[in-house]
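chain below, 284 aa
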Amino acid sequence: MDSFSRYLPREVVKSVLNSKQSARLGGEMRELVMLFTDIRNFTTYSESGDATMVLDHLNTYMTALTSRIMQTSGTIDKYIGDSVMAFWGAPYPVDQPASKSCTAALAVQEETSRLNLEWEKAGIDLQFFTRVGVNIGSVIVGNVGSEERFNYTVIGDPVNLASRLEGTNKLYGTGILVSQEIVDAVNNEDSHHDFCFRLMDRVKVKGKNLSTDIYELVGFRSHFHPLELEDLATANAIMATSLDGGVNVALEQLLALPTDKPNTRFLLELRTMLTQRQAAIQTA
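prediction:
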């Protein structure tokens, strides 16, 4: 069991052993949460460093991320180079999967920071920055491949969107991006949850005549000052105005806010974003 679980997700091994049947090709539709990670500029680092050292650092990093994901009942689907793909809700159901995935995403960032600090203290010139994308939706989960060899994995548009969100972090300089569906699912699981989501933009789902609002998961609410949370709510409302009614209207709302208190970074960064978008529209 222990040896097999090092090659396959432990949950999948348990499921196969408990079923007392041979694994076979096929799958089923389920609503799952998918998470993708990636290391910024890892290719540059891997091409310039000693191969043995690169592998050692990568394995240390992957071990840390895997542990934190599994602590939240996540199933590791696969490792793709320097990326991790995981999901919640299969092969066994998971309570509050969206919330658990958000906890895992923040834990991934926490582990990355911890490792960066350890490497710095050890005199190792290495700093990783992890990008994360999270989405939820109905997907096919099961054994995919050939009769000779197959993988337990998930496929479907929601999976592709989770991967796309991970890559979209590059455009906004963010660390964790989640879909509107994740935000809704977290709210449905617990209306008093402890997560802070910042509305960033609206993106079209590739190959579909649909769009989704995307949010940055910025941390736990309990880690922020009440004034910051108040400004975050205001920033989200104004960004929603920008997406529905235009940048100019949103900037007017922003400039009309009371000036009797200092703005937190959420409103300051919102002003920068909206000003840049207004300039881009005027240039176009």
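The two ends are 60 Å apart (CA to CA). Residues 224-284 form one domain.
thats it, cya
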